[in-house]
Amino acid sequence: MLGLYENFPKNPHRTVHFDTLISSKRLQDVLIQIFYHLISQSLDIEEVANPSIPRCTVFFEFGIGEVNNFNFIDHKEKDRVLKTIQKKSFQIMDFLCSIRYYKMRNGRKTPLRFDYYMLRFIFDKNTMDIQVFHERGPMYISPEDVIRFIGNRINEKFSKRILRASEVY
Asked: Does a structural domain hold residue 1?
């Protein structure tokens, strides 16, 4: 089933509950667009989080869950997911988020260890929960920072703030 990863961990490392001013369908559409655009961007780590390693470049990769796999969100997959959302919105969307880190050393871009997160978005009327599980890696960016970064990116797409965190657990 598209959107759902059957082996999502039972005990996420962080969960944040958001109140939202838009429909789940619109929120899911924006989320897929954001993830698709992030995969082509290079960001300074300071744009994402308070860095544990300064002056580092960050690259994101996202895959959407489908049964026991994650499908990389390229142009074809983005279009497939958006068509599915137009027919019927998801109640749950699972993603694998790979964060690649690079540091400049002696004029060369040196790769550091990657972080792998699993993200679960749970949608209900006027609410969304984000659950984050840190799968492996050095955790240069914390689960809280991942959630904050995604929430900020969603809010930037609108003229007013449409997501408000109401509970953190």
From this structure: no
